[in-house]
């Protein structure tokens, strides 16, 4: 497996120099951040990012994410134009030598938490999700923003989009995903790009919006409907694992050969549909990271893997979940397990 680290570009307080010093760190997971969702990523911008990464003796091995325009998710008539743009971006990424592209299909909001800096018993803090609290949040109040959210929506637009989703069932959303894949996968095949869909986080419906990349059954379905090795998944332990009902090793089994990227993160279940993120240690979270990595290894996975979120420790501030220290500890912990397996 190729240990990798997410880097948010030049504005990231965590530098490539620092990342390079994490033991056995090889890949950088990043994106072009200054292009509006749906527009084509120009080759020059991708090349520039790649050169910056390579100048630090690291490899730009995964793009996370190329955002999918909302019209595609909603199945709006204008989706075909956005899909053409998506294909063009894939071609440009391929020209720059990128092989793995992570994306998600969550309506309107990306990952959601109720608290960004919830205390842990050891004095550090981490991201937390409490279903009760989230049910009382009003995303239309305009007061609520999370780091993974698209802030470009005005409240009015947001209301319209959220209303439009009222008539989109989960079955329909799945069909919209399949439509998208049927169009882009042939391009991915031609270009040698592996598509890796990230699960919904958390893997259940929030704010009344449909969500479909949530469990084994749905993953199997979407892999089967568009049955190409280039149509694969990002196996995110913390996202699938947020739901105690999810059979994580069953998902690995079902997606064997189609897992193109792994996010490793531990979570501690704190109630039904509630959890807090912890260190990667199997003693601190509810997920058995050792067993999962073993399962991935046995399933033949040898691709890029990154520590997903970390706690904020040693007084660190910055982008919640994306500090340097705990993600670096996580990478070292994961590498220890991986070295043992190999
Ligand atoms: C959260 C991340 C997600 C992820 C996207 C992938 O920290 O795991 O924001 O990057 O959902 O498309
Ligand atoms: Mn993830």
TrEMBL record:
Enzyme type, top EC level: lyase
InterPro entries on file: Man_deHydtase, Xyl_isomerase-like_sf
Signal peptide coordinates: none
Source domain of life: Bacteria
Record GO terms (molecular function): mannonate dehydratase activity
Cofactor section: Fe(2+); Mn(2+)
Reaction(s) this enzyme catalyzes, per UniProt: D-mannonate = 2-dehydro-3-deoxy-D-gluconate + H2O
Pathway entry: Carbohydrate metabolism; pentose and glucuronate interconversion
SUPFAM superfamilies named among the record's database cross-references: Xylose isomerase-like
Family as reported in the entry's similarity comment: Belongs to the mannonate dehydratase family.
HAMAP family, per the entry: UxuA (MF_00106)
Job description of the protein: Catalyzes the dehydration of D-mannonate.
UniProt name for this protein: Mannonate dehydratase
Organism this protein belongs to: Salibacterium lacus
Gene name per UniProt: uxuA
